[in-house]
């Protein structure tokens, strides 16, 4: 696995880049990724809701306005089980998140300089029963990855 910010990628070469960068690297990742997109290509970054509050990020967003956002209701839990470093159960993150979405060549500001989103979606939190891991052949399987599981009966 390489460090994306240190990896050489041709400009104007990608149709889609989607990632969840660290809060500290997000601006560098966003700036690099937009240069690597082809015209009409898309970038999606899952970031803390507060990411645009920083003056440098806010200025960059006005120079590179996203076309959309998907604001996630509630706090995410990125890991399940026991944290091997602390011996404690993983918990939900302490902040909420949204996915910023750009299309190269898209994005615009209104006359006041505010970002004009083509689409801004705020999701509703799933009921607890719908946020659990599935069980296939008695094994816990992360939702959305069940197609990766093969048992002898399906192989």
Task: Give a written overview of the molecule.
By secondary structure, the protein is α/β, with parallel strands linked by helices. Helix content is 13%, strand content 31%. It has 2 helices and 9 strands, in the order βαβαβββββββ. It has helices at 26-36, 55-63, and strands at 14-19, 37-48, 68-75, 96-103, 108-109, 115-116, 119-122, 134-136, 139-141. A 5-stranded mixed sheet has the order 1-2-4-3-7. It starts with 13 loop residues before the first strand and ends in a 14-residue tail after the last strand.
Q: Tags for this entry?
A:
alpha/beta; 155 residues; 5-stranded mixed sheet; 13% helix; two-stranded antiparallel ribbon
The largest sheet has its strands arranged as 1-2-4-3-7
Low-confidence stretches: none
Oligomeric state of this protein: single chain
Reported for the largest beta sheet, the result is: 5 strands, mixed
What radius of gyration results from the CA coordinates?
19 Å
Principal-axes geometry comes out as: globular
Written as H for each helix and E for each strand, in order along the chain, the element string is EHEHEEEEEEE
Task: Determine the N-to-C terminus distance.
Answer: 30 Å
Helix content: 10-25%
β-sheet strand percentage: 25-35%
Would you tell me the structural class of the helices and strands?
A: alpha/beta
Mean pLDDT score: 84
Number of helices: 2
In total, the number of strands is 9
Describe the protein's topology.
Layout: E1 14-19, H1 26-36, E2 37-48, H2 55-63, E3 68-75, E4 96-103, E5 108-109, E6 115-116, E7 119-122, E8 134-136, E9 139-141
Parallel strand pairs: 1-2, 3-7
Antiparallel strand pairs: 2-4, 3-4, 5-6, 8-9
């Amino acid at each position: 696995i390489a460090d994306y910010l240190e990896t050489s990628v041709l400009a104007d070469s990608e149709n889609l880049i989607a990632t969840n960068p660290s809060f500290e690297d997000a601006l560098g990742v966003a700036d690099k990724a937009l240069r690597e997109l082809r015209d009409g290509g898309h970038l999606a970054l899952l970031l803390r809701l507060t990411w645009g509050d920083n003056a440098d990020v806010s200025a960059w967003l006005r120079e590179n306005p996203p076309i959309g956002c998907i604001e996630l209701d509630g706090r995410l839990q990125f890991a399940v089980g026991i944290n091997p470093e602390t011996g404690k159960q993983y918990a939900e993150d302490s902040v909420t998140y949204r996915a910023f979405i750009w299309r190269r060549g898209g994005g615009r500001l209104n006359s006041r300089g505010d970002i004009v989103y083509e689409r801004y979606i705020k999701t509703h939190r799933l009921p607890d029963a719908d946020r659990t891991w599935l069980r296939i052949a008695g094994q816990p399987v992360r939702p959305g990855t069940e197609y990766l599981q093969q048992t002898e009966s399906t192989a």
